[in-house]
Amino acid sequence: MAERGYRSPVREKHAEETRRMIVEAATELFAERGYGRTSVAAVAAAAGVAVNTVYTSVGGKPALLIALAEDGVADEAALETDRLVAASSDPREIIRLVAEGTGKVRRRRQKALAVLLDNRDADPDVAAAAEVALRGIRDRIAVVAARLVEVGGLRGGLSRKKVEQILWFYFGIEAWRTARGFGWSWAEAGGWLAEQATKALVSAGVTPR
């Protein structure tokens, strides 16, 4: 009988912590110096690990970009929003949850998103990682759109695709960047975006709960 491989929870926790420190260090350096001017050695030094540890834990520079994009997609605030949206049957509440959830993720991941979105035209590696991040957001919004159509209470004539597009308009990357660019607080921006999205999507005959 083949022996089962032993998995040490302590070792796995340490490996995950090491990976987290490396990705965070890479994000800070990419934001400060730019992707092209940041070396793997610099990331290792900032994270307090050996260069080889960066490669074994995450990979080279392209892998570091993908890692910071994937970490944003799997942010715990986004996962919690997914659960809350799935449990709600109130379209107004769902939109409010999306506003709160996307706001939390944008606030926590703003440096990483800036690295990806501001430099995607300059480097194919950055462009590939940016697409991972954007696809993750689009996929999540598509799930919300399907949930809104399922629970009902929407304005007449809205297809699932149109609902998805409206959600992207109000809660996609550019909407948050524009609102924040006006100098609005995160709470002010989220409240306004939720209000406008509700007007665009929810039937006037649906009573707020």
Automatic annotation (TrEMBL):
Residues 39-58 bind DNA. It comes from the Bacteria. InterPro entries: Homeodomain-like_sf, HTH-type_TetR-like_transc_reg, HTH_TetR. Signal peptide: none annotated. The keyword DNA-binding applies. Residues 16-76 form the HTH tetR-type domain. This is TetR/AcrR family transcriptional regulator. It comes from Kutzneria chonburiensis.
